[in-house]
Amino acid sequence: MIVAVLLPVFFSHIDTARAEEERPYSLAFKLGYHLYPDSSYFSETQAIGAGGRQDFRGLSLELFDYTYQWPSRWSINVSPVGGYYQKFIPSQTSQHSVFVHTMTVTPLYRLAGSDAIGKWQVYGGIGVGRYGMTARFDFPDGSTSDFDTYTLGYQAIIGAEFRYSEQTGFLIEDKFSRARIRFSETELDGLEIDVGGHNILLGVRIHF
After folding, report:
1. Based on the number of CB atoms within 10 Å of its own CB, is 91 exposed (0-12), middle (13-18) or buried (19 or more)?
2. C-alpha distance across the termini of the chain, in Å
3. Fold that domain 24-207 belongs to in CATH
């Protein structure tokens, strides 16, 4: 009688462990909301009526966010396609738009919970990445002015995932990054912009 009760429990634990072991890879697709930190760049554009930091907060996107899970609590995350784009259109002046594209690599550590089906796990990590920026001004006379540059930065992640099934999980993350760019005196009078900031993301993760 006892054996009959314990055997299903025993094999369910084996199946769960086997599912985790056989699905160490995952791809995530995320949609979020991004907010820039303070910088002299946005202070200047706000002063001239071309939009400040609050005007450029908005949607962000990450595609093909890849994670490899080791048998331990550690995993490695590679996010090759991420970014945020916003534009500000004031009256009777130029249109100002900023596009930031990111590529990051982040070691992650499971802080609590488990990867079992129906369970939550909480994870965190600190990583580095490449942050590219394109700032564009479209003037009423049809002329444009573009500034393209990139920098290296870092990010800290705290997130949680609910494992819905063997193949699927749902996640929420907060990414805080710093990636500071300083323009030359001849380009934008030495202004600086931090293209990092806070990025709150919701997404789905496919395990395979």
Report:
1. exposed
2. 37
3. Porin (2.40.160)
